[in-house]
């Protein structure tokens, strides 16, 4: 099963099941992750900055394409509520702008 390593959460590893979004996998592993629109792809608060393994993600969703076209989602960012990890492992981090105040982050 593919794994996501969240580097600024002390390199926490999360297994991502087939068809499961990253947000679903993170929540199933007990990790709080910002998602203001309720995981509907209507905002960018759930984004992750992908540092390695971008090629292992599924294709961009319509929502991700829309935000990328507007310059609100960079080429190395994905929306955790929309994307899947289809093969291989990936590494990413929580953007500073969406860090939750009650969570402890590493550098």
Automatic annotation (TrEMBL):
<feature type="domain" description="2Fe-2S ferredoxin-type">
    <location>
        <begin position="2"/>
        <end position="98"/>
    </location>
</feature>
<dbReference type="Pfam" id="PF00111">
    <property type="entry name" value="Fer2"/>
</dbReference>
<keyword id="KW-0001">2Fe-2S</keyword>
<dbReference type="InterPro" id="IPR001055">
    <property type="entry name" value="Adrenodoxin-like"/>
</dbReference>
<protein>
    <recommendedName>
        <fullName>2Fe-2S ferredoxin-type domain-containing protein</fullName>
    </recommendedName>
</protein>
<dbReference type="InterPro" id="IPR001041">
    <property type="entry name" value="2Fe-2S_ferredoxin-type"/>
</dbReference>
<keyword id="KW-0479">Metal-binding</keyword>
<keyword id="KW-0408">Iron</keyword>
<dbReference type="InterPro" id="IPR012675">
    <property type="entry name" value="Beta-grasp_dom_sf"/>
</dbReference>
<comment type="similarity">
    <text>Belongs to the adrenodoxin/putidaredoxin family.</text>
</comment>
<dbReference type="InterPro" id="IPR036010">
    <property type="entry name" value="2Fe-2S_ferredoxin-like_sf"/>
</dbReference>
<keyword id="KW-0411">Iron-sulfur</keyword>
């Amino acid at each position: 099963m593919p794994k996501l390593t969240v580097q600024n959460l002390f390199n926490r590893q999360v297994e991502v099941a087939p068809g499961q979004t990253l947000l679903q996998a993170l929540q199933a592993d007990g990790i709080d992750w910002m998602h203001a629109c309720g995981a509907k792809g209507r905002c960018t608060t759930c984004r992750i900055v992908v540092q390695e393994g971008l090629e292992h993600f599924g294709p961009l969703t319509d929502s991700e394409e829309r935000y990328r076209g507007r310059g609100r989602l960079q080429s190395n960012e994905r929306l955790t509520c929309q994307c899947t990890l289809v093969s291989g492992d990936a590494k990413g981090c929580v953007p500073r702008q969406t860090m939750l105040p009650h969570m402890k982050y590493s550098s």
